[in-house]
Design goal:
- By secondary structure, the protein is α+β, with helices and mostly antiparallel strands.
- It has a domain of 166 residues: Uridine Diphospho-n-acetylenolpyruvylglucosamine Reductase, domain 3.
- The protein has 17 helices and 16 strands.
- The strands form three sheets. The chain has an eight-stranded antiparallel β-sheet. Strands 1, 2, 3, 4, 5 and 6 form a six-stranded antiparallel β-sheet that branches. It has a two-stranded antiparallel sheet with strand order 8-9.
- α1 crosses α12.
- The longest helix is centred in the first third of the chain and has 18 residues.
- The protein is globular, with a radius of gyration of 22 Å.
Length: 505
């Protein structure tokens, strides 16, 4: 019995002791308006002023989607209460004004009644707008809509000087371009004005099976560029690979045609529904269920908690089939070291090494990456999500009064326009001595970093990273972050990008 099969047997009887938050179904979301937003900003600024000069500043935020540790601090955090809502939705201009701590779940429930949705909705409901823009966010629209920050029209950012700085493609452009992938090292988004796109009420899916990783990669590149497959439009595109001989592309098409839809919020499990022997398998979901299809079982990670066991799933409260609840179980494991105490320790084995990463390689290098990864460990499946920067983004300029322009439109996020990058997500663990009996902590994650670098790729920084400072600067903006710090956080009130994402400051 794995850790959390055991933990779940306990947790399943005690779920009423852990507040789950929102359930699975949509709720009516009323935008808070500008007056309440301005009140929340005043409280935020007051809390910043209350932090002693010279002390580091952090958010007083109870939850996180980060898989890396951070140093503890006794300094009071910034008051972000009241900054977690939609301010307004404008269906005429197809835009929304959103507070930085607003979750995508809240935003989606506010926009779908108008037939609108964000250009990119990251996979987990509790990811916030500010978190996706300053950090990482991809999904199955990223092959045509790029990354979340590319649909941002304007931002208000609390910088290290204690000021709210408004930035856009024409105002404080250096901050606008440098904020994505800065992970709070420059400040925090207080307000974001974003574009919305029209969506239809249903998504028709085609699960296309491949028996060869090279062929899958070739078709993934072709569909990413053409946005069609066998004569049908493709609005959504991602994939799941179980082995080198079993991979799937999932092609979604928006439709307003009425018809039966699947429900993966009960007994069925979405990623298992994709598997089939050959050819194409079709499915249909409502647009909201499609958007949150991965959240229900945290992709496939709910299996670690026993939630995919039919016997346990029948007893599992439906409202707790969501990533926010699995996060609570992870929190209990981190606090009490449940897995190690109940399983590996008793077996005389070392702690398991957590391998929770999203890496990116070009579509040409994807087969080589998959061949290496499946030979190097037994983690499966992995998620594939193609990314292409939005057309025209390379023309994003810089004002003469700001810092000099950089070769990339988003200097801290190393993607080039006109190239198909494939995000590969894998979230599991390996034995602590997987690399060698004498391996140092994080050994396999270090091997992954080396291989990704060898293939000309990079990885997201929401999880552990082990780069040297020189390697890090080569991959993530060179001296551009330091230049921005000189302007927007000269006193170092926030940790630097390297200190925060590698050193855990």
């Amino acid at each position: 019995m794995s850790l959390v099969d055991t933990a779940l047997n306990v947790a399943g009887r005690a779920t009423d002791l852990i507040k789950p938050g929102r359930g699975l179904d949509p709720v009516r979301v009323q935008p808070v308006g500008w007056y309440r937003h301005e009140q929340a900003v005043e409280r935020l600024l007051s809390s910043f002023s209350a932090v002693p000069a010279g002390e580091r500043v952090r958010l007083a935020k109870k939850t996180s989607n980060l898989f890396r540790g951070r140093a503890n601090s006794d300094v009071p955090g910034l008051d972000v209460e009241g900054l977690g809502s939609v301010i307004e939705v404008d269906p005429v201009t197809a835009t929304a004004q959103v507070q930085g701590m607003c979750t995508y779940e809240e935003l989606v429930d506010a926009t779908l009644p108008y037939g609108l949705a964000p250009f990119v909705v990251p996979q987990l409901k509790t990811i916030t707008l500010g978190g996706a823009v300053t950090g990482m966010g991809v999904e199955s629209t990223s092959f045509r809509n790029g990354l979340p920050h590319e649909s941002v029209l304007e931002m208000d950012i609390l910088t290290g000087t204690g000021e709210i700085v408004t930035c856009s493609p024409t105002e404080n452009t250096d901050l606008f371009r440098g904020f994505p992938n800065s992970y709070g090292s420059l400040g925090y988004a207080v307000r974001l004005k974003i574009e919305l796109e029209q969506v239809k009420p249903f998504v028709e899916l085609r699960h296309v099976r491949f028996h060869d990783a090279t062929e899958l990669s070739r078709v993934l590149e072709e569909v990413s560029v053409s946005r069609t497959y066998e004569g049908e439009q493709v609005d959504y595109l991602d994939g799941v690979v179980f082995s080198l001989t079993e991979g799937y592309l999932v092609l979604g098409r928006q439709t307003d045609e009425e018809g039966p839809v699947s429900d993966y919020t009960r007994d069925q499990i979405y990623y298992r529904s994709i598997q089939h022997p050959d050819g194409i398998l079709r499915d249909r979901l409502t647009i909201r269920d499609y958007i949150w299809r991965w959240d229900i079982d945290w992709f496939w990670c709910s299996r670690a908690f026993g939630a995919q066991d039919p016997k346990i799933r029948r007893l599992w409260p439906r409202d707790l089939l969501r990533s926010s609840f699995y996060w609570k179980l992870i929190g209990l494991d981190r606090k009490y070291d449940i897995e190690h105490n109940l399983t590996t320790k008793r077996a005389g084995e070392p702690h398991r090494e957590r391998v929770v990463q999203d890496i990116e390689v070009t579509s040409e290098r994807l087969p080589e990456w998959l061949e290496w990864f499946f030979a190097a460990c037994d983690i499966q499946p992995v998620w594939l999500c193609p990314i292409r920067l939005r057309e025209g983004v390379e023309e994003l300029g810089n004002t003469g009064e700001q810092l000099a322009a950089e070769p990339s439109p988003w200097p801290l996020y190393p993607l080039q326009p006109g190239t198909t990058w494939i995000n590969v997500g894998f979230w599991s663990a390996v034995p602590g001595d997987h690399v060698s009996p004498e391996a140092e902590p994080g050994a396999f994650n270090r091997v992954i970093e080396e291989k990704v670098h060898e293939l000309g790729g990079h990885k997201s920084l929401y999880s552990e990273a082990f780069y040297s400072r020189e390697q890090f600067e080569e991959l993530y903006g060179g001296d551009y972050p330091a230049k921005l710090k000189q302007v927007y956080d000269p006193a170092g009130r926030f940790p630097g990008l390297y200190e925060k994402t590698v050193r855990g400051a």
